[in-house]
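Materials and Methods. Structural model of Pyrroline-5-carboxylate reductase catalytic N-terminal domain-containing protein. The 223-residue sequence of Pyrroline-5-carboxylate reductase catalytic N-terminal domain-containing protein from Nesterenkonia sphaerica was retrieved and submitted for structure prediction as follows.
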Amino acid sequence: MSEQEVVGVLGAGRAGTAFARVMLRVGIGVDLCSTRPPKALQHHLKIYAPGAEAVWPDQIGVRTARQGPGIVILAVPQEDMDGVDPSWLYTTGPEPLVLVDATNTWHDEELPSWLQAALDEQLPSSYGIAGRFGQTRVVKALNHISHHDLEKFADAELPLDQRRAVALAGDDDAARGRVMGLLVRMGFDPVSLGGLAASRPIEPEGPLFDRPLRREEILRFAQ
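The predicted structure was written out as tokens:
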């Protein structure tokens, strides 16, 4: 029997476990890690993401590189991002990992200096993420839909044109394509905005943030 396809999730909070639940229900395996060791995390996952595998952070990229789409979803609050070691996302596979930046910048957070530097230059926050995790291909996605709506609207049984549309942005075409494939499997209609520079509309206070969307509404902001 072949091994189950696996996607990694960094962060076991409300967003990270919601991503896990949606993927698990369509048959995608999930490796999930947090600041807690796997043994301590297992009970939490039995309640909030039953079926997800608790792993050490430095293992999070290994299985998805070996037996998945090579995708890790970043669901750690930006104020805690210094605790994420870039080496966790280094693999020796033929392709770099794709890092889905599902994080947001909130005004009351004290950010790491490297991330604040990107914001001070008036850049989308994903530029700072891409610079920090330069060994990956960063795609901004899944940040502009709440964890409540994520589970409510993800429906892989619906025809594509009847699903909730979600936007994504990334500088690497192949990486965007891999994330679009994952979003389709999760039950959404993915719409590319273009490169990371086009991700502003899905940031907090942007016109596409936390809104029920159809494809045509997102396409107005595509670059």
